[in-house]
Write a structure and sequence with these properties.
- It is a single chain.
- The protein contains nine helices and 15 strands.
- The protein is α+β, with helices and mostly antiparallel strands.
- The chain has one domain: Penicillin V Acylase, Chain A.
- Strands 12-1-2-3-13-14-15 form a seven-stranded antiparallel beta sheet. It has a four-stranded antiparallel beta sheet with strand order 4-9-10-11, with helices on one face. The chain has a two-stranded antiparallel sheet with strand order 5-8.
- Helix 1 runs antiparallel to helix 2, helix 7 packs parallel to helix 9 and helix 8 runs antiparallel to helix 9.
- The N terminus is likely disordered.
Length: 377
């Protein structure tokens, strides 16, 4: 059983921070036999993150997909439904989970190539979306990405040791040539994956030379969103695929579960589709805290800054409250999913509403917890 740590799912992510962080837990290494994909998306502010559920779509014969730099790709007859984490204005920071469980995300992985061969302006932003829209398996997604990069060229040119030490019994010395995968010291759960993504202090890992460049937090101040995708093959995909996602840094945030069977994310998870100015970003995140369910990103980001300003005790309190809330959500998950599976046999819209209400309940509980934490002196 293996856990693949710091996986570059697709080439690179352009970010001014040191880079994003991802890992994959194989089905034989997970506590319930599911596949887990976990990711922290690190990008320097000002940013905003929106979430969408995009349905299946059919396209006319001869249609094309325009690439951002002028090229075009032949459109397929049908594209798959997917969940989309959108960062407006960023070319390499969006993530996707499609209806088959294919998860597409990126880590910063600079190439040594300084003179890439580019055709028709190359491909960058649309590469991830095309994989999400067209690939029913991860293998086919990798092959598709390879064909597109070979055809157009890619228009873009990492914190591994800390992650490995969280899950392995074998001592691993910090060095440049770290192993690609390790056998974990226990079978890992979704909750374990969240805690790895929350790793934020050097003293949470074994003692190493303080000047080591390989030691760094997995959760940085630049983490704008974080997710854990839970994929279970023994359940219908609308129920078996669960996207646990938080906004802002997971060290002070709450993971909210969204099943693939939802019709869409709550309205507050979709704001303006434009990267904010620095002045507007600062004004929103530095304002007095108000838990506004219609402004998810700004509420989570404002809470992060307020908690950070109150010091370590507040951060610790936020993490404890998040763990309690997430534990309760996981306790409710099985009965909710059982009821949804039964409803799918007779009333699919009612099943979707049940899953959406479960997500909204966890979301609203997280907002209530934020207000309670900041009210404590």
């Amino acid at each position: 059983m293996t856990i693949l740590v710091c996986v570059c799912a697709l080439l690179a992510a352009a970010a001014p921070c040191p880079g994003c962080f991802s890992f994959v837990v194989g089905k034989d290494a997970s506590a319930d036999g599911c596949v887990i994909v976990a990711h922290n998306e690190d990008d320097g502010p000002p940013q905003i993150v929106n979430h969408h559920k995009v349905p299946r779509r059919t396209h006319p014969r001869g249609a094309t997909v325009k690439l951002r730099n002028g090229g075009a790709v032949e459109q397929v007859q049908q594209t798959w439904a997917y969940l989309w984490s959108e960062m407006p204005g960023m070319r390499f920071s969006d993530s996707y989970v499609n209806e088959w469980g294919v998860t597409v995300t990126s880590d910063n992985c600079p190439s040594r190539e300084d003179k890439p061969e580019i055709s028709e302006g190359g491909i960058g932003y649309m590469l991830r979306r095309l994989v999400a829209e067209r690939a029913p398996t991860a293998r086919e997604g990798v092959l598709l990405a390879g064909r597109l990069v070979e055809r157009f060229g890619y228009i873009d040119s990492g914190r591994q040791w800390s992650g490995l030490t969280c899950v392995t019994e074998r001592k691993i010395e910090p060095r440049p040539d770290l192993p690609f995968s390790v056998v974990p010291n226990r079978k890992l759960s979704v909750s374990d994956a969240m805690q790895i993504l929350r790793h934020d202090k050097k003293n949470e890992t074994p003692a190493v030379p303080p000047d080591s460049r390989l030691v760094c937090a997995l959760c940085s101040g630049g983490t704008q969103t974080s997710f854990v995708t839970q994929m279970r093959r023994d359940l219908r995909r609308d129920v078996g695929i669960v996207y646990w996602v938080c906004l802002a840094s997971p060290r002070t945030s709450f993971y909210v579960p969204f099943h693939f069977g939802i019709t869409d994310f709550p309205a507050g998870w979709r704001l303006e589709s434009e990267r904010p100015t620095r002045a507007y970003y600062d004004r929103k995140v530095q304002a007095p805290f108000a838990a506004n369910p219609l402004e998810a990103f700004w509420t989570f980001s404002n809470f992060r800054d307020r908690v950070a300003g109150k010091g370590h005790a507040a951060v610790k309190a936020a993490r404890k409250r998040a763990l309690d809330l997430e534990r309760h959500a996981m306790e409710l998950q099985e009965p909710v999913e059982q009821a949804a599976r039964q409803l799918y046999e007779t009333d699919r819209p009612a099943a979707a509403r049940l899953l959406e209400n479960y997500s909204k309940g966890v979301y609203l509980a997280s907002l209530e917890a934020m207000g309670a934490i900041l009210a404590e002196e």
